[in-house]
Write a structure and sequence with these properties.
mainly alpha; 2 helices; 96% helix; rod-shaped
Length: 74
């Protein structure tokens, strides 16, 4: 009887490890991939913000340098 319980316990532990470890590995890799995608998206958005800020600064300088636009902007 003890050998049956031990065999069942050993087989179930083998199944858990055999199925659980690959699943965990895939889960962790997908999580890392999502994190990399989020970081790439944040970098892309930061680059857009920097570009927008540069465009706004250029427009402000253009308006300040043109007397007609400077008067109408007030």
């Amino acid at each position: 009887m003890l050998s049956v319980y031990f065999s069942v316990l050993l087989v179930s532990c083998g199944l858990v490890l055999g199925l659980g470890l690959p699943w965990l590995s895939v889960h962790l890799e997908r999580s890392r991939q999502r994190e990399r995608e989020h970081v790439a998206e944040l970098d892309r958005q930061r680059a857009l913000i920097v570009d927008y800020e540069a465009t706004i600064t250029a427009y402000r300088q253009f308006v300040q340098s043109d007397p007609e636009l400077a008067l109408s902007a007030m």
